[in-house]
Amino acid sequence: MRRLGHDKQVIIQKRIDEVMKEEFNKMIKGSSKDPLLKLLLEGKIDSMSIKEIREHLKGKEHE
Amino acid sequence: MNSIDFSLIKVAGYRGRNFTLKMNPKGQNTVFIMDGNTGKTTTIELLRWCFGHRESEASGTFKHMWADPAHVLDDTKKGHQTCEITIQFSALDDQEHEHFFQLKRVAEGEHDDTSPPLNEKISSIKDTLEIDHGISVLTGDAVFDYVSQEFRFNECAEYFCFDGEKAREVMQLASDSKNINTLLALVNRRTTHPKLEEYKQRLNGLRERVLEEAKTRISDRALELNMNKLNGILGDIRRAENELNGFNNDVDVCRLALSRLESDRQQTQNQITTAKVNELVERNKYEVEQKVAAERLSRERDSIYENSEDWISASVADEINQIKMEVKEKGKLPEPYRRDLIETCLACKKCEICGRPLDKTSEERIKKLELQVAPHDVQVFLSSNFLISPSSLNAENKYNSIKKLVAQHDLLDVKIKGIKLSEKDAELIARRESLDKQISALDTRIAGLERDIGDRKAWITDLKGKAKELQEKNEALKENKIILDKIDDSTKIIEDAEEKIKSKATEIISNVISEGVSSILGSRFSARFTQAEGLMLGEAGFYGTEKGGYSGRLVLSYCFAEAMTVVGPIIVDTPAGNIGSPRENLASHLVANHNQVVLLCLPTELTNFANIISPKEPITIKNMEK
Questions:
Q1: Where are the domains of chain A?
Q2: Cα–Cα distance, B459 to B463 (Å, whole number)
Q3: Which one, out of B31, B288, B456, B467, has a CA that is 20 to 30 A from the CA of B487?
Q4: Per-residue pLDDT averaged across B489-503, rounded?
Q5: Contact B191/A16, CB-based, under 8 Å?
């Protein structure tokens, strides 16, 4: 049977994808205070109306 | 889609042979014992062909061992025949629902001795993809597009279908620092962040929502036109960006192929250069001389273009001098030159003769130029030595020099063709010539693609400028200007992050490959991949291109291939080869790294290897019958 997660073995593909994802998120989060990007990364954009997004962005601008 | 699992690979009619590899049930690895000439290499190469080339580009792209391109039909059979490859696999969607896929490629045609180099005429190649046992069926290029988009097979078919040849290629790439760019191109392809496109698409989706909402509130015809135009431009931007991605991908693929061809060409040339055969030595000598002549010829021809201005001015010198003499004698330009000159001076606001900018007084003077005898600057100009001196260029000398070089080149050609070579040596020369042709074709293709990339980038910038302008003017969008501006900002941040991550990619890949190498070969061993030195194996902290011996380098190749793979399964031809003692660790590593391992093994690779991959009885594939 399959032995995924074998103790000492390095899962190369997974490790690359994990590290890339970490680096990518670090770069985006670290380099930006962009409120729209924040909504995007939190996966909220699709569930918010245009009005809500607009108000949110305006609110952040006045902060 | 994920958790891809191959269940069957069936080959029918390939060079007249038929065989079927039926894998163990889902969740289990499979070991096939396949002795020499039973289809191990063929299986790997057919999979790469089906996953790596779309239907419309499949003809003439199949490679088999050292034959590139290679034939697929039976060269001993006359008349119409077919070669059929069937690949069955399953995968889970995001909701963990299982889907079944059957990809079939059918090539039809006939063997034909009069159609070199393949000696076959392919009349058609047809791809079909059945999804969920025929609930949905795709045909033609849509098959390739679907499997590329859903599974990314096309990006890594060279690596998840792994064999000794690929391992040798990676070893070669890693052992020569000249190949660093090839390795970097591979890494760049691998490290494109999968989320990036999704984020960009979501931002584009938001932009569309904003536009859609604004559209519902438009009553004004002009505003409606503006909106339609804006939508059209945004559509063009998306198309141009898709094309740009495609071109970038194609250029990477071409560069990789070019690097392989150049490496093959170098090897072939080395064989020719080091041959102890008089005819080859003599031929090589003439070829070197011919190359020198060709380069000189090219320089001579280039110089004509480089000095084109002198050539042109030499050919019109008499006419220009005559005009100038007339100016000097009469103090004004003859018609129509005078009127043109005056108009140009006034339009450009500078004196076209001396280059001085025109102030108001000068402008007035120029307007009255026809009435005046040459003003101050013209007088200065006329008193100088202004006639064009006779050109030092001599057309006849140039012609004779080029003609001599062409004759020298042709004479060497006759000498080269006059040398009788043995069949083996002639094959070597033919191979090099074929490689030269392929290299030249790829160079041309890369140049064309780079031109296309430049064009698309310029077009996208232009379109974005136009879109921005239209957005600014559109009253209906003013309310949501803040969102549109932020979409642009966020897109820019994502694109910048992608660039940054590419520059960090070598470091990430290097670390992960190193961890893989250590886990197979032991903690004394590691790997290092840098932009300066390429990919190297290290032992006790010392790195070099020859560290670790053959087995160490084979392990390094595996780890590199795994780093380049983006799908779960691995199908390996002759996996253990000469690996020696690390074979058990490699087997464990393969099991741990892939959700499915399919081994096409030699009988000698069973002990301490195949049994670790799968405890089930290996499946023996007998010699294929024609």
A1: 12-62
A2: 6
A3: B456
A4: 80
A5: yes
Rounded Cα distance, B114 and B567, in Å:
41
Neighbours of B219 (CB within 10 A): 7
Q: Which of B115, B88, B104 is nearest to B4 (CA)?
A: B88
Residue B58: per-residue pLDDT: 92
10 Å CB burial of residue B388 (0-12, 13-18, 19+) is: middle
Q: What is the pLDDT of residues B101-136, one digit of tens each?
A: 999 999 999 998 888 778 899 999 999 999 999 999
Question: How far does A61 lie from chain B, in Å, by closest CA?
Answer: 10
Structure tokens at B293: 């002549």
The domain segmentation of chain B, as residue ranges, is 308-383
pTM beyond 0.80, yes or no = no
DSSP B174-186: HH-GGGHHHHHHH
Paired with B21 in beta bridges are: B9
Specify which residues B377 forms β-bridges with: none
- Chain B touched by A48 (CB under 8 Å): no
Q: Give the B window 203-262 contacts with A, CB below 8 Å.
A: 203, 205-206, 209-210, 213
Q: Spell out a b/e string for A16-37, using b for 16 or more CB atoms within 10 Å of the CB, else e.
A: bbebbeebbeebbeeebebbbb
Q: Which residues of B are less than 8 Å from A10 in CB distance?
A: 512, 515-516, 518-519, 589, 592-593
Q: Where does residue B433 rank: exposed (0-12), middle (13-18), buried (19+ CB within 10 A)?
A: exposed
The sheet with strand B2-14 has its strands ordered as B17-22, B2-14, B80-92, B98-111, B120-131, B136-139
B550-595 pLDDT, tens digit each:
889 889 988 988 888 888 899 999 888 778 888 999 999 899 888 8
Coil, strand or helix: which one is B163?
Answer: coil
Interface of A with B in 7-36 (CB under 8 A): 8-13, 15-17, 19-21, 23-24, 27-28, 31-32, 34-36
How many Å lie between the alpha carbon of A35 and the closest alpha carbon of chain B? Answer: 8
Beta strands B80-92 and B136-139, pairing class: unpaired
Question: Does B512 contact A34 at a Cβ distance shorter than 8 Å?
Answer: no
Tokens 């032991």 identify what position? Answer: B522
Q: How many CB atoms lie within 10 A of CB B17?
A: 18
Closest partner residue to B595 (CB to CB) among A4, A31, A32 is A4
Query: Which residues in A lie closer than 8 A to residue B497 (C-beta atoms)?
Result: 24, 27-28, 31
**Residues of chain A neighbouring B519 (CB-CB closer than 8 A):** 8-10
